Amino acid sequence: MKAGILEAIEHLEVKEVPDPQLEPCSIVLKVKVCSICATDLRIYHQGHARMKLPHILGHEIAGQISAVGSQVSDFQVGDRVAITPRIGCGKCFYCQKGQDIYCLNSLSFGHQLPGGYAQYLLIPECGVRYGVVNTIDDTVSFEEAAIAETVACCLRAQKTSHVGSGDTVVVVGGGPVGIIHCRLAKANGAAKVILVERETRRLGQVNLDSIDKMVDSQKSHVEAEIAALTEDNGADVVIVACSSAWAQEQSLSLAGRGGRVNFFGGLLPDQASISIDSNLVHYREVSLQGSHSSTPNDNREALDMLARGAIAIDDLITHRFPLDSIREAFLFAESRNGMHVAVLP
To answer: Domains in the chain, start-ordered, CATH in brackets?
Structure first.
């Protein structure tokens, strides 16, 4: 089969590799779509501490089951499924506490396990047992199902930050993740959703109905704008949906008393030290939280929301590339000229 392999830092090649071998408790997936995530771009440039190169990247995966092991009974050939990328070990300190999202020995597709930039993907026994294989409703496309992984991560973040009825939510960053956060906030009952973005040109083809007000951070004083839009009360929830140290530092000043701030976008290791005004945390009692990754249950909830029409994401898939053009796909994703980029093996 063909696969997109990161041979070395910034050296991505499409090569022929052996097909995955079916085992009694495993599943082989014919990959239909694997989307490009900001994490993939970061690994392309920086590598990953728990990844050995060369390696097949890609973790936003959807496809059709092509082979089922003799001891697998819950799935059959032809099933349309999406894959939750992360597998907990079930044995470590956190897994034993029921907090497997923090698993010390987790395995992830596109990180420790071969990823989805390939024609076929092996779902090993540990993944099948953990529940990473999630059936897709007929109303949900493979492209939407692949991005359900992103929706699932956003869902978990909004649960962590208790986004709910009547809230004013500020989302900083208008990429695909930021737009998904805006739409989820509305679906979760937010009364007002404000998007802060500096590259508004990329939003021309995107449905912005979930956004009550957009603040252009290149043309406006963000803190003053948010104060004016919230009657000087500040936001109930601020979600930093971009990898920006400046945005993280500023975010606490956008939250009102008792507000919650979620750092959803990670920073590069050499840029991760930031300065914040601790008195905002102390006197305003602002809660600072972080969120990353998702569980199979989060993924199933995301797929259910897509099937019910509770959230729409089809307009966020703006560009598609064949596997043979994966290098061009990565370059385009980095250009920020579109939104979500899908690779079609």
So the answer is: 2-152+293-344 (3.90.180.10), 162-290 (3.40.50.720)
Question: What residues contact residue 78 under an 8 Å CB cut-off, 6+ apart?
Answer: 64, 65
Tell me the C-alpha distance between 230 and 257, whole Å.
12
Is residue 4 within 8 A of residue 58, CB to CB? The reply is yes
The pLDDT score that the predictor gives to residue 48 is 87
29 pairs with which residues across the strands?
Answer: 65, 121
pTM given for the model? 0.96
CA dist 224 to 120, 174, 230, 234, 263, Å?
51, 19, 10, 10, 21
- With 0-12 CB in 10 A as exposed, 13-18 as middle and 19+ as buried, what is 242? buried
Residues 6+ apart with CB under 8 A from 276: 248, 249, 252, 288
Measured between alpha carbons, how far is 240 from 141 in angstroms, rounded to an integer? 28
Is residue 91 pLDDT above 90, yes or no?
yes
Q: What is the DSSP string of 12-28?
A: EEEEE-PPPPP-TT-EE
Amino acid at 30: K
- Measured distance CA(195)–CA(214) in Å, rounded: 5
The radius of gyration computed from the CA coordinates of the chain, to the nearest angstrom, equals 20
The token pair that represents 188 in the structure block = 């979760």
pLDDT score of 202 more than 90:
no
Q: Count CB atoms within 10 A of the CB of residue 221.
A: 11
Instruction: State mean pLDDT over 18-36.
Output: 97
What is the C-alpha to C-alpha distance for residues 254 and 222, in angstroms, rounded to an integer? 8
Distances (CA, A) of 19 to 30, 79, 162: 11, 20, 44
| Nearest one of 167, 165, 224, 223 to 192, comparing CA atoms | 167
